[in-house]
Automatic annotation (TrEMBL):
Keyword line: Oxidoreductase
Protein family according to the UniProt entry: Belongs to the short-chain dehydrogenases/reductases (SDR) family.
Oxidoreductase listed as a keyword: yes
Keyword Chloroplast in record: no
An MF annotation (GO) of this entry: oxidoreductase activity
Name of this protein: SDR family oxidoreductase
Highest taxon in the source lineage: Archaea
Length: 252
């Protein structure tokens, strides 16, 4: 894809699932990649995979819900590779499921802290670095849960709606400064998150499949290619857009 080779890309939640695939895809397209996550061993494995394929990457441990971690992550990215061009703010959790009336405030807040405040903090520290470079692109991971409602995961749905709001607002704040901000809204994608959510229960998995008109679940690589496209020069007129990649899940 145009305009990725030689650039610097930061991916959060990059030790697993969608973030891992995006990190690998950025590297394949020639970007230098910062792989960030809480999971150190798995994150370093992603770096090793990139290096084995001839790419350049470093691992930086950071919790996206902690402001001091995010500030350090962005500073260390710039120290490692001389600047920042692209960010995929992707780290997230599914949270503890349950109806709202039974949900503990602490469980609600944990999902908001990681899935929503984490995206705010990431953009807060990334945007000035992109402006220093004269431009760049950010892609936030929202979800089809940012466009619909759903029982038992109200914190998750609320956070993902919020990610779309943050994305649209940030896009307008920097629209004239050569920085584009978009979101991806995946449907059900086969990652460890979905394994945890269904707890190996075939019936639960079959239920998820029923929601996918295309007849299968998505693959993390199918989200990664959209993220890298949105960062590329091929998407030069695309900003503030929540891109749905869901096999038809939210078709009205
Ligand atoms: P995953 O569990 O495979 O990966 C998530 C990664 O985020 C993990 O490596 C985890 O360690 C990391 N992480 C969690 N909390 C963190 C924190 N506080 N700081 C830094 N890293 C943290 O799950 P995934 O399916 O790849 O999910 C990635 C993103 O995609 C999430 O935002 C998720 O909500 C979103 N999403 C997933 C699906 C799906 O069906 N899998 C659908 C829509 C959206």
């Amino acid at each position: 894809m145009k305009g990725i080779d030689g650039k610097v890309a930061l991916v959060t939640g990059a030790a697993s699932g969608i973030g891992r695939s995006t990190a690998l895809r950025f590297a394949e397209e020639g970007a230098k990649v910062v792989v960030s996550d809480l999971q150190v061993d798995a994150g370093q494995q992603v770096v090793a995979e990139i290096e084995d394929a001839g790419g350049e990457a470093v691992f930086i441990e950071a919790d996206v819900s902690k402001e001091s971690d995010v500030a350090r992550l962005v500073d260390e990215t710039v120290s490692a590779f001389g600047g920042l061009d692209f960010a995929h703010n992707n780290a997230g959790i599914e949270g503890k499921a349950g109806p709202m009336a039974e949900m503990e405030l602490e469980d609600f807040q944990q999902v908001i802290d990681i899935n929503l405040t984490g995206v705010f903090l990431s953009m807060k520290y990334e945007i000035p670095r992109l402006l220093e470079r004269g431009g760049g692109a950010i892609v936030n991971t929202a979800s089809v849960a940012g466009m619909t409602g759903g029982p038992s995961l109200s914190h998750y749905y609320a956070a993902k709606h919020g990610v779309i709001g943050l994305t649209r607002s940030a896009a307008l704040e920097v629209a004239t400064e050569n920085v584009r901000v978009n979101a991806v809204c995946p449907g059900v994608i086969e990652t460890p998150m979905i394994e945890r959510f269904t707890q190996g229960d075939d019936e639960a998995k079959a239920g998820l499949l029923e929601d996918e008109p295309i007849g299968r679940l998505g693959k993390p690589e199918e989200i990664a290619s959209a993220v890298v496209y949105l960062c590329s020069d091929d998407a030069s007129f695309v900003t503030g857009h929540p891109m749905v990649i869901d096999g038809g899940y939210v078709v009205p």
